[in-house]
Design the sequence.
């Protein structure tokens, strides 16, 4: 078999050296009474052509290709320059182990150092780690960090967090002495209700976790939020589900936020049916020694050459074990490396332009939808790339189904999520859309009434 | 000349362009308050596509990888990553948005269902969640399942027992699940014996987390009796599946009494390690724990695959969306290529290779535990004139990645070697030959080892400086 | 620094009495075991501790170690130099590398500590293991 280099002759030779006549003898330490392995139940081996055919058949059962998609809600379709796929696919980047032997891992280490730098630049904060699993678990880690550092046990969550993020945070804290409370949304503006926030902030609160742009697509006034939260000496944690927004909107650092966490799938990662994605975390310097996850740091070698190493490892599980800042070991390193490549390729001007295009496209839709009879744009201003529409007749799921028949995946109905309104649909716009595509969407919505 | 690549920021020049995208073709009319916008763009690099390719090619040259050579890292199972899997995982028709309607992604849902089916058959457990993103995430998920199960029975317990040979993620994960960790010392045979467990088994023990084979490469032969004792005590048995490579096709953890376990797709199932991730850590459970698996779950109804999102008895959601789907694709492709004919061969060759190395190095290095070992073996630095670290660094000079060092903690100067089934006899012989040379150098000229490596792109790096004065990003005009 | 005047704990802390307060650090043995110290996590002034409670935390590149309160009391002062120069713990563990000062609420607990001779015997015992 092509993945198994040993020949039968070699196996025999090796058995002789070891001193056994059958390889079975090497397994004699396993109680034979337990070794009923029903191999017959497993499928037969496939040759490479058979494997290709099998997956072609499986992929053929999907039917989403060729449809115009405006799906978002935490995963975004952006154009990935070919160079990113080409470079990241090289065996030297795809197949190394974790860089625990830095002398032979400078490629990975430097690439991640560059990625950390770019994320710090985009978030406007001091330190970014080398990745977490995804935006949702990154948000959960931020909650744990805030509690750990402040010594306070209550955390406020904005009701406009991505529902899956809120769900993961709840899962993470379920057995820990941490209390979660929700801060309401102001229906009119789609933003965090400042009054409710202030009324809930007290000395027992470790942090307020809010998302901007939020799950309804609305951009929050991060500066006011941070100021209110700091008055009570709590931490302001901003969740960013669409990392592209960092290149257009005021950065979390500029707003005075303490930690920014979220999802960087938009930076060069395929939609891939949900994973692997890329959780990011960036914090102010004061949190440096408690931030979870790996960190790459710069140093010098014996000859004085600049080099990179994993550092501040004593926070991590392999040293601190149950006292670690997190249990994370394997992270999304390759995804982070790929994101760094994407950001390098897009560059200062390219990323800003693409980020702006996302908003301009959304804004074009909103303006053009102004007169429509069967839908209403709920928040017609201060959105970034996602637009929440209210379906006036029938349900959002019904409208989505009608457009699906026309080859358009119009958006994510909020009814997909717990307690989501049945008449609301979330549409995401990206630089991959052009005017013609948006016009087609508008026409299809118009016809669907 | 051995100069290292500049940082991408140091290559940046005003006006260079790497991006080939168009401007938006809609009118440039934003609908957002100016105060909410960035003042200036982030100072990302400005580099041409050509220079970007050169930059990353230069970085690639500095990296060792399993495509290039042997990684004898214990408990990491650095096996070959089949290239066809990369092509299959990149197929356009798989790259659906995770919120695409289910009827449009039946192929993807079937891929997940088929992988679950394989894992059930390989482990003898009743069902799996594919959601966890890595082994540690799986451990955490597993511990939450244990806790939920006991809570429902009205028997919430506070303690989890963990052997002193366990990987650090085990106690960390148990801790985050709200448990108090009590360490059990491995006995003189290197395992946890039934009596060792009994000594620690109190009514407050929720579970024992056990790696099998353990990190010494030794099969925990008392495991079935331990499972019985745990169950009689109302406790559960969690198995860390990192070392499953030794058991594939030979014995099923479910048959040993395991209640919950995680697998590492990026170890046993040949998905690429990517320099540290992404991994994937599916968690399997015995039948009575099925209701507690996290959501979402894939279910077949007639000819259609459905997704279940709500279950009040579930521990909840542990991750956004479905999990590391493209990693699952690679794992499934690997299994389909192996088939029933080769699954056991993997374990046999892995164990043969490890025992071959053990036999060849046994006389030259101290072997603290004499019990039979399976897919990995651990030597100590006892009697050596140099430190384990120095041997490891000298291996780099000979073009080999070192074995795992200083783990497990119970062996002094541990050298943990796991060759996997991917290595040819030639490679193993070469490795042994190099080890013999290095051990000879250790006796004749130990300073050579202490100065190693000298043939790598950089020499030993000052980790103290990195930790005392952390520089975690580049800054313009900063000291680089 | 004259070690004869110091008392020692089994966790390799040294203690120097100064009236109603004690100065606490870790011994040469401890700093050697730890390796290069990269960071010292200091307690807040005013923190109340019982004998044996973890008071501070020393991080080296490869390990992390708790420093325990050798007696019960309240933290009065911490060594401000350790933030910028944690290596003082390695270079001068009994002098400039002192970690914290605390008031003593139960003077009798001091008698539970070892004097220099007993500590040196204790170290010999560890080496023999």
Sequence:
């Amino acid at each position: 078999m092509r993945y198994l280099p040993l020949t039968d002759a070699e196996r025999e030779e090796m058995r002789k050296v070891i001193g056994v006549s059958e390889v079975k003898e090497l397994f004699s330490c396993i109680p034979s009474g337990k070794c009923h392995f029903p191999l017959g139940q497993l499928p037969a081996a496939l040759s490479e052509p058979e494997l290709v055919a099998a997956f072609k058949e499986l992929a053929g059962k999907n039917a989403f290709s060729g449809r115009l998609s405006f799906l978002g809600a935490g995963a975004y379709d952006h154009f990935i320059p070919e160079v990113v796929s080409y470079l990241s696919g090289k065996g030297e980047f795809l197949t190394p182990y974790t860089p625990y032997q830095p002398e032979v891992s400078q490629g990975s280490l430097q690439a991640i150092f560059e990625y950390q730098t770019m994320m710090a630049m985009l978030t406007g904060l001091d330190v970014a780690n080398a990745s977490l699993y995804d935006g949702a678990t990154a948000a959960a880690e931020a909650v744990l960090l805030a509690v750990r550092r402040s010594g306070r046990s209550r955390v406020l969550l904005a009701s406009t967090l991505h529902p899956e993020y809120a769900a993961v945070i709840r899962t993470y804290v379920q057995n820990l002495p941490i209390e979660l409370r929700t801060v309401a949304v102001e229906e009119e503006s789609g933003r965090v209700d400042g009054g409710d926030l202030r009324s809930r902030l007290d000395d027992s609160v470790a942090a307020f976790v809010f998302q901007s742009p939020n799950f309804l697509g609305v951009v929050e006034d991060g500066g006011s939020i941070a100021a209110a939260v700091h008055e009570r000496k709590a931490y302001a944690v901003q969740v960013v589900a669409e990392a592209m927004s960092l290149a257009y909107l005021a950065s979390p650092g500029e707003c005075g936020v303490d930690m920014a966490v979220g999802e960087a799938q938009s930076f060069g990662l395929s939609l891939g049916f949900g994973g692997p994605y890329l959780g990011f975390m960036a914090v102010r310097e004061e949190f440096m020694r408690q931030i979870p996850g790996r960190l790459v740091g710069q140093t010098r070698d014996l000859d004085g050459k600049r080099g990179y190493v994993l550092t501040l490892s004593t926070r991590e599980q392999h040293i601190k074990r149950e006292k670690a800042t997190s249990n994370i070991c394997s992270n999304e390193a390759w995804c982070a490396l790929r994101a760094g490549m994407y950001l390098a390729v897009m560059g200062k001007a390219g990323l800003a332009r693409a980020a702006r295009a996302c908003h301009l496209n959304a804004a074009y839709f909103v303006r053009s939808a102004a007169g429509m009879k069967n839908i209403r744009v709920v928040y017609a201003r201060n959105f970034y790339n996602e637009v929440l529409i209210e379906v006036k007749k029938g349900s959002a799921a019904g409208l989505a189904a009608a457009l699906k028949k026309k080859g358009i995946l119009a958006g994510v109905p909020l009814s997909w999520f717990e307690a989501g309104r049945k008449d609301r649909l979330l549409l995401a716009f990206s630089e991959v859309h052009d005017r013609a595509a948006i016009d087609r969407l508008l026409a299809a919505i118009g016809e669907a009434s | 000349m051995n100069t290292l690549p500049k940082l991408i920021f140091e290559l940046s020049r005003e006006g260079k362009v790497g991006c080939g995208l168009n401007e938006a073709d809609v009118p440039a009319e934003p609908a957002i308050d100016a105060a909410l916008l960035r003042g200036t763009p982030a100072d990302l690099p400005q580099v041409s596509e050509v220079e970007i390719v050169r930059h990353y090619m230069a970085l690639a040259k500095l990296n060792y990888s399993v495509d290039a050579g042997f990684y004898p890292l214990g408990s990491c199972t650095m096996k070959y990553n089949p290239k066809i899997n990369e092509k299959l995982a990149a197929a356009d028709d798989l790259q659906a948005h995770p919120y695409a309607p289910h009827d449009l992604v039946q192929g993807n849902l079937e891929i997940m269902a088929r992988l679950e089916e394989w894992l059930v058959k390989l482990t003898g457990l009743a069902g799996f969640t594919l959601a966890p993103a890595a082994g540690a995430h799986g451990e955490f998920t597993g511990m939450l399942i244990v806790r939920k199960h006991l809570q429902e029975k009205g028997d919430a317990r506070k303690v989890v027992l963990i052997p002193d040979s366990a990987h650090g993620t085990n106690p960390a994960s148990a801790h985050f699940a709200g448990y108090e960790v009590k360490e059990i010392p491995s006995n003189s045979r290197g395992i946890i014996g039934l009596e060792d467990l009994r000594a620690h088994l109190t009514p407050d023990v929720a579970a024992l987390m056990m790696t099998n084979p353990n990190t010494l490469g030794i099969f925990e032969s008392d495991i079935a009796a331990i499972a019985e004792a745990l169950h009689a005590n109302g406790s559960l048995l969690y198995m860390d599946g990192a070392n499953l490579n030794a058991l594939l096709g030979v014995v099923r953890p479910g048959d040993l009494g395991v209640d919950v376990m995680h697998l590492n797709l990026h170890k046993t199932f040949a998905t690429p390690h990517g320099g540290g991730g992404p991994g994937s850590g599916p968690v399997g459970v015995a039948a009575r724990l099925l209701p507690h698996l996290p959501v979402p779950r894939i279910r077949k109804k007639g000819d259609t695959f459905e997704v279940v999102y709500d279950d009040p008895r579930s521990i909840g959601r542990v991750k956004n969306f479905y999990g590391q789907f493209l990693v699952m694709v690679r794992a499934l492709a690997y299994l389909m290529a192996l088939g029933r004919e080769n699954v056991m061969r993997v374990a046999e060759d892995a164990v043969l290779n490890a025992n071959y190395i053990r036999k060849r190095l046994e006389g030259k290095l101290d072997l603290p535990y004499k019990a039979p070992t399976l897919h990995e073996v651990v030597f100590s630095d006892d009697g050596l004139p140099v430190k384990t670290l120095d041997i490891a660094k000298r291996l780099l000079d000979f073009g080999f990645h070192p074995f795992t060092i200083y783990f497990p903690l119970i062996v002094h100067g541990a050298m943990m070697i796991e060759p996997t089934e991917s290595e040819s006899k030639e490679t193993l012989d070469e490795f042994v030959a190099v080890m013999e040379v290095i051990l000879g150098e250790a006796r004749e000229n130990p300073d050579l080892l202490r100065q190693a490596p000298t043939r790598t792109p950089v020499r030993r790096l000052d980790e103290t400086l990195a930790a005392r004065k952390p520089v975690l990003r580049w800054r313009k005009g900063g000291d680089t | 620094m004259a070690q004869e005047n110091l008392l020692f704990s089994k966790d390799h802390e040294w203690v120097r009495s100064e009236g109603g307060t004690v100065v606490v650090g870790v011994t040469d043995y401890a700093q050697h075991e730890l390796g290069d110290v990269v960071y010292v996590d200091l307690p807040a002034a005013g923190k109340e501790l019982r004998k044996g409670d973890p008071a501070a935390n020393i991080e080296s590149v490869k390990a992390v170690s708790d420093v325990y309160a050798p007696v019960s009391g309240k933290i009065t002062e911490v060594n401000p130099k350790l933030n910028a120069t944690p290596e003082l713990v390695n270079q001068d563990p009994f002098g400039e590398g002192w970690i914290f000062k605390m008031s003593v609420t139960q003077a009798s607990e001091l008698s539970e500590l070892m004097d220099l001779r007993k500590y040196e015997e204790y170290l010999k015992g560890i080496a023999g293991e």
Q: What stands out?
A: Helices of chain C lie at 28-34, 88-91, 116-128.
